[in-house]
Every structure is written in C-alpha cells, then in structure tokens.
Amino acid sequence: MRVTRGSLMLIGTLIALGTTALYALRTRPLPVEVATVGYGPLQSTVEDQAETRSHDRYVVAAPVAGRLLRVLLRDGDPVTAGQSVATLAPVPLSVREREEALAAVQSAAATERSARAQLDHDRQDLAQAGRDLVRLRSLSPQGLASIQALEHARTAVTSLEMEVAAAHHRALAAAAQLRGAQAALNAIRTLGPNRTSTLTVHAPAAGRVLRVLEPSERVIGSGTPIMIIGDLQHLEVVMEMLSTQAVRVKPGMSAEILNWGGERPLRARVRRVEPYAFTKISALGVEEKRSNVILDFLEPPATLGDGYRVEVRIVVWSAPHVLLSPLSATFRCTTGWCVYVLADNRARLRSVRIGHRNDEAVEILSGLRAGERVITHPSNDLVPEARVTIKP
C-alpha cells in the first residue's frame, strides 16, 4: 500500500490534535470550594436524647392485701401531704404480714436517718468549699492563686449547692416514706378483730398525681403500686449517654435543652454523672454501654411534665479565641491529619495538628496560619499540586 505525502500530513495533524486535547483534559483545573482560616470562639459539645422526670417521685402502694375501692383521683389532679388518696378493705393479716409491716417502718426509719446524715455531710462539704473559695479570692489579686484554680473553686461551690439541694429533697422524701409506713402500721393495729374496718391510704407529700396505676375496684396484694405522685415544680432531666461520652462530662457543666416544644433553648446544668453503666440495645440491635447524666433546669418551663422527651446539648469545652478551620477541610493522612491549602491556584498538601472540634469547626494547633485558604470537602480526584479553580 502506497502512503502519500498528504496522508502522512493528515495523520500527523490528527495526532497533534489528539495530543493537544488530551493535554487540555489532563490539565483542566478542578473546581473546588474554599474557606478562610481565622480566629474565633469554639465549643465542643455532646448531644443526645433525654427525658424529664419529677425529682421526687412517690409510689403509693397498698400497705396490706385487701380489696381496693375505686380510686376517684385522676392523672394530673393536685394532692396535699396527708390527703386521702385510696381506701382499702384489708383481709385478715397473718403474723408474718404484721412483722413485714413493722419491718417496713424500721427500713423507712433507717433510710430517713441515712438521708439526713448525707445531707449533713454535703452541707459540711459546701461550707469547706465556700471557705476555700474565699481564701482563693483573697490570694488571687496577689498572684498567688491561678484563674483556673479560682474557676474550679467556683464550680465546686455551685456543684455542692446542687448536691445539698438534692440531699435535702431526698431527706424530705425519706421522711415522707417513714410517715406513710408508720401510718399504715398504726392503721393495721387499730383494725378490729372482724376486719370489717377500712384502711385509708394517704399521700406522702404534696404534688400532682402523675399516673393512677389501679383506678378500678379489685383485690390487690400487699405492696401493689396504686399511683405515682410527683412535684412538677421540681423537674430534672435524665440523659442516657454513651459511656465513651459520659467520661467527658463533669458536674457543673453548662447545658441546653433543645427541641422541647418551645421557641428557644432552655438553660440547664449537670448535677451528677452516675458511676454505674448499664447495657442497652440500640435501634440497630447493637449493645451499648450507657450511663445516666442528671441535669437541673436553670429556667424550668411550666409546660413540661414528667416523662417528656427533650434533647440535651452539654458544653464539655469552650474557648473564646482559637485558630479555626472548617471540619470538612481536614482528613486523615499518613502523618495524622492533613488539609489542602490553596496557593498559586494549586492544592498544596499540608500536615496539621488539631485540638478540640465540633460538627462544624476544628481547632488548629499548628500547620496553618490565619488568612490562609483551605479546600473544603476535597474529592478523591484531588491530588497534591493539582491545578484547581474556585467554584463560583
């Protein structure tokens, strides 16, 4: 086959055009999004669902076995301390049942003594923390006490004030339980031999009926719960938090109550992180270790009730002025964490050291300077030194 000069020129032209097109395609700048690194405030938080509950719940139970007459109270009705809430027609009691009633009184008395002893202990701890705070305040102007130590002392006083308030309410609850057990025992002792008398069950404390568990007339056994009474003016929030997050939470930390039904978040404070973790199955069937975190409202709304679902955000760390980069710009690399810095229309790979972070931003400890631009959401097509262009 004879190849003419014109054919060779056509082939050469096609090769040149293909090479040019391939080079143009390979060197076409990749469109990217960028953000500027700068200083600003940062908060590290943990969030999870929670629910409200009455700080002091009282389960009113039948002190003896018998026929429960129809309960006239309904959910939400107010009650006062000592008010009649149910009536029982007791069945004949055995010696064992009388001894159990006496033992219930003795147990309630021991619980009441323990609660008062704990209240006295917490009051002494609060007094000592107050003295420590006064001493640090006097040393601070002379430079003999750090700001951090002063803040820790203030937090300790606030936390212990909450502990004293909680211990006081526990002591009141224990005293109410003792009065209820003693009243049941006295009523049993006053029943006639024919057992035709009725036994009145009284409310151990003032509050509202949260739920009537046994509204209808029927025969019930000793210790059967009849209703639950609680004080809706003193609510707390219970948050079942993953144990890996609960270790970051400390009493006294600030928190916000979100998605509770109101227009704005509610302020709260962590009172206690329970030391015992329990196993719970998630919606995906995964076993999780969780621990209860108890929070107190700083501004409780009148519309919330017992058992309402809310969301809680706890601030575990905050700083007013740190170097920030978008979290979406950082990614794992062989040296730890890296970012792509935009310089001369090219993506420069740079290692960085990060600190605290949240869902939007991350603290940069080293590797970047304020004013530099980083590429956010880098794709897999982006490689070091690649030409890039900013998306419009």
Number of helices, where a helix is a run of at least 4 consecutive DSSP H or I residues: 4
- Euclidean distance between termini CA atoms: 55 Å
Strand order of the largest sheet: 2-11-14-13-12-15
Radius of gyration: 34 Å
Backbone structural class: alpha+beta
Share of helical residues: 25-40%
Report the order of strands and helices: HEEEEEEHHEEEEEHEEEEEEEEEE
Which term fits the overall shape?
A: elongated
Mean pLDDT: 84
Spans where pLDDT lies below 50 across 5 or more residues: none
Q: Report strand %.
A: 35-45%
How many separate domains make up the residues?
4
How do the strands and helices of this protein lay out in sequence?
Layout: H1 5-26, E1 30-36, E2 38-54, E3 57-61, E4 66-68, E5 78-79, E6 84-90, H2 95-139, H3 147-190, E7 199-202, E8 207-212, E9 218-220, E10 225-230, E11 235-242, H4 243-246, E12 254-258, E13 266-281, E14 287-297, E15 309-326, E16 331-333, E17 336-343, E18 346-357, E19 361-366, E20 373-376, E21 388-390
Parallel strand pairs: 1-21
Antiparallel strand pairs: 1-20, 2-11, 2-15, 3-10, 4-6, 4-9, 5-8, 6-7, 8-10, 11-14, 12-13, 12-15, 13-14, 15-19, 16-17, 17-18, 18-19
Helix pairs in contact: 2-3
